[in-house]
Amino acid sequence: MGLELKLRALLKLNYKFFADMTFLREGGYSNVASGQTFYDGGVTSVFLPDLEAPDYYGMSAGQVWQSPFRQFIYESGVVLDGLITQAVPTIMSGVYVNGSFRAQDDSTYSHHIDFLQGRIFFDSPLPLDTQVHADFAYRHVRVDFEHAFNQQFSDGYIESKYATNPETSFQLVYPSGNKQPFPAVFIEIDRRSTKPYELGNRSLTITDEVKFHIWALDDLQRDNIVDILSSQENKTIPLIDFNKMPMPLSGIFNELSPEYVPYQLLLKNNLIVTTIGSGTPVMALTYIDKVMTENVPGNQEYERALVTYYVTTYFNFPVSPIGYSYGSIGVIPKIGDPAF
Fold first, then answer.
1. C-beta atoms surrounding 114 within 10 Å
2. Low-confidence winner among 6-10, 20-24, 191-195, 285-289 (lowest mean pLDDT)
3. Among 119, 139, 159, residue at a domain's last position
4. Three-state DSSP class for residue 215
5. What does the pLDDT read at residue 298?
6. Same domain membership, residue 63 and residue 17
7. Could you tell me where the DSSP H helices lie in the chain?
8. Domain span at residue 309?
9. Pair 242, 10: CB distance under 8 Å
10. In this predicted model, what pLDDT tens digit does every residue of 35-91 receive, in sequence order?
11. Where is the domain boundary, 82, 117, 139?
């Protein structure tokens, strides 16, 4: 068994899923229907064979097929905010091969859906002239972690259908391979301070700086993301314990986990039983006490900004022998409870 996820790692995961859901609720996605055409007459829903797959994945030509879009949406049950009236996101469940729909477990065209990279991995190679399409929705804003931020400086592309002149900022390599599109938000946990919860209590009140590094290709896009993130000030975010709850995407193909539990159901903190673990998902609450924003000088043609959350987490376990024991909100021990 690997090392248990501690607070910093859990904060990153929780604020990623929170940001992903926030952008979705704001309508930050587009639905693509099979056969849908672009203004130039091209078909937006088409997947093309990734000819670099034999070099990068050790697979045969015709096994990996790439959409011109990335970051497919897997979240079900998304409730849109306010007056947004667009259709809810379409969750991809299979592909159309030469016009016929094939589910993932199809006996002839069994496949895996890579929701992060917008790819399909077929168990057996298809002829390169096969017509492959799908119904899906993709995110307008990619949310990732600081390791991707550190590798992002040379490859920034806007999400697009364009297939020509790929090495300019307003084109996307097609198939997109390992290129990542902008706009993007990268999460970093920076400085931390602590203080005792109360006199005689071993528990700590922990304040972390959660930084959102924003990259965009124009200032309006950047400013819109800043507004959405900064408007979350004073919100309370339940901290989901992913040591015992399944991650939504799993495996080498970034598929939807067979034990996927929607984020909004995890927040309800009802008892959940999976092969990963069981119990109530929420281990603590974090509070966005303050938000600071600033523009950052951009590299090349990019527009950048930084949104910093000052987040306080309360682990109030006064009778734990070492002062640091996790339990769901409903069963946090009180001062009069037996030590454990």
1. 22
2. 191-195
3. 139
4. strand
5. 66
6. no
7. 7-25, 53-56, 146-150, 219-230, 263-266
8. 1-27+140-340
9. yes
10. 888 777 778 899 988 877 776 677 888 999 988 888 999 998 888 887 788 899 999
11. 139
CA distances from 12 to 37, 98, 146, 219, 246 (A): 38, 41, 10, 26, 16
How far apart (Å, rounded) are the C-alpha atoms in residues 293 and 339? 43
| Cβ contact 231:239 at 8 Å | no
Distances (CA, A) of 252 to 12, 118, 159, 209: 21, 14, 23, 31
- Count CB neighbours of 302 within 10 A: 21
- CB-neighbour burial class of residue 56 (10 A; exposed 0-12, middle 13-18, buried 19+): exposed
Write out pLDDT tens, residues 81-137.
877 888 999 999 999 999 999 999 999 999 999 999 899 999 999 999 999 999 999
List the structure tokens of 148: 């991707």
Give the integer Cα–Cα distance in Å for 178 and 244.
31
SS3 112: strand
The CA distance from 247 to 116, in Å, is 13
Residue 50 exposed, middle or buried by CB count within 10 Å (0-12, 13-18, 19+): buried
The residue type found at 315 is: F
pTM for this entry? 0.84
Q: Are residues 134 and 153 in the same domain?
A: no
Dihedral class, residue 321 (left if φ above 0, else alpha if ψ from -120 to 50, else beta): alpha
Identify the CATH number of the domain in which residue 324 sits. 3.30.2000.10
Tokens of 186: 């990268």
Contact 308, 212 (CB under 8 A): yes
Burial of 134 (0-12, 13-18, 19+ CB in 10 A): buried
Q: Do 92 and 134 meet the contact criterion of CB atoms below 8 Å apart?
A: yes
CB 320 within 8 A of CB 202: yes
* Cα–Cα dist 134/141, whole Å: 21
pLDDT digits 0-9 by tens, 149-171: 666 555 555 555 554 444 444 44
Handedness of CA 296, 299, 300, 301 (dihedral sign): negative
